[in-house]
Amino acid sequence: MQKLKVSNRVRVATIMGMVLLAPACVKNRFKSLSSAAPVGLVRIEQQKFVVGGSVVSPTESVHYFGIDLPSYGYQPIYLQLQNLTATRYVLAPSSIQHPLVSFEEIMPYCTYKTAEFVGTTGSAALLFFWPLLPLYVIPVGLSMRSYNGSAEEQLTDYGFYGTSRPLEIMPYSAVHRFIFVEKHKGPYAFDLLLLDEGSKEFIRFSLAL
User: Fold this and answer.
1) Percent helix, strand and coil across the chain, each rounded to 5?
2) pTM, full prediction
3) Which domain holds residue 197?
4) Which candidate in 32, 68, 91, 184 could, as Cys together with 167 as Cys, close a disulfide (CB 3.0–4.6 Å)?
5) What one-character DSSP code corresponds to residue 71?
6) In the chain, how long is the greatest CA-to-CA distance?
7) Are 12 and 19 spatial neighbours (Cβ–Cβ below 8 Å)?
8) For every one of its 209 residues, what pLDDT tens digit does the chain have, with 9 covering 90 and above?
């Protein structure tokens, strides 16, 4: 009888410890991409328009996306577009002369697998003390869901994919985006075509990163 009481206490203490640590289980791995500034930026200027590019290192990938994407075969490339003119420019996904990895391919690597976690952890927790199960699984599951929503929003706002809408660069402004390509030994060389909304002509930038 005494052993049973001790066993129950251990179970309760274990689950309570899990409950208290639940919020910490979901780390905020994804950094804000609004102020991203990878090192080693290569800049090219033509007609008072500056295009910069940088190959994101594995360390920078972990910092910005919470995971070393190059180790999984995906190379993030940072693009900075600076318009020093009074003309509006437009960049379409098809104007980047390099195959782009889709949003659907990148997203699973940058987010938590909530359903898998809940199912696996819920089954394991049943071995301890099932009445306390919702106190652990639900908070962690909700935290993961919230994190995933934030990550998806940032990948949508600051990622540029084949299905993205054309990007407008307003007069005297600067924007930046991340594109994702299949990793290879490099260098990463491609042309980028910017449409001058005034003259309807393209400016070609050749990047070698």
Assistant:
1) 40, 25, 30
2) 0.79
3) 2-208
4) 91
5) G
6) 88
7) no
8) 444 444 555 555 555 555 444 444 555 566 778 888 888 899 999 999 999 999 999 999 998 998 899 999 999 999 999 999 999 999 999 999 999 999 999 998 887 765 555 555 555 555 655 555 565 666 676 777 777 888 889 899 999 998 899 999 999 999 999 999 999 877 899 999 999 999 999 999 999 99
**How many structural domains is the chain composed of?**
1
202 contacts 194 by C-beta, under 8 angstroms: yes
Identity at 112, one-letter amino acid code = Y
Q: How far apart are CA 92 and CA 90, in angstroms?
A: 6
167, amino acid identity: L
Q: Is the peptide bond before 76 cis (omega within 30 degrees of 0)?
A: no
